[in-house]
# Entry
Amino acid sequence: MPDAALPDAAQPPAPALLEVEALTAGYNRVPAVRDLSLRVAPGEVVALLGPNGAGKTTALLAMIGLVPLMSGSVTAFGRPIDGHPHRLARAGMLLVPDDRGVFFGLTVRDHFRLARKKADPARLAAVLERFPALAGLSGRKVGLLSGGEQQMLTIAKAVLAQPRILMIDEMSLGLAPKIVQQMLPAIRDLARDEGIGVVLVEQHIELALSVADRGIILNHGRVVLQDDAATLLRRRELVEAAYFGADEYGDVAAEVLPSGLAV
# Structure
């Protein structure tokens, strides 16, 4: 007689696409991020939050091999990263940079051609369904697009390549909150529908946590708070104290820290 299916609570966790253990990295032998650990499974969104200078971008660059590790380890697709970002890109680990990486003199259509020379027309059509605002802009030069349209194009290019891990650095930079509110749910849907693991670096706490599974808050290069996103959204006073590095953070944590919340 076949074994009965395990209840959901007993199901083993999905294999990780990305595992980071005690990552420390920086510049000129000075760490910018210290002892960061995280795990991203297929379909998960992990929000890496913190103020300017917290070490978020350095962490992303180290994960993808653009900044060397001082200590710790990064494993992608079950293998340690080897310091060759182009190999990781071919394997399906892509970074969406905060500068958008677009060419103002080229059209939207040109960018899609550069992103994937042999793109399946059906795949391009599917990507444009997720970002319908781009569908009517194929012949327009990117320099004439709004900031939100440029950011949509940057993410759409990455999605066209069918990534397995997508790392997005400050998607909201320079954008109106209304535009960010429209774009972040698309990232959530993308992760769920295509099984992509997403690491989302953001400064907008609530918007990021509203679409994330888990949140990690960095301050001065160190993890000061982490938990599932729903818990963090319920503990706004604790999150804000951790985010802004308030002197009273320890007092706030002692008062409101729920059991199991890692600091």
About this structure: Residues 103-162 form one domain. Residues 177-194 form the longest helix (18 residues). The beta strands are 18-27, 30-40, 45-49, 69-76, 79-80, 93-96, 165-169, 197-202, 214-219, 222-228. The CA atoms of residues 127 and 146 lie 19 Å apart.
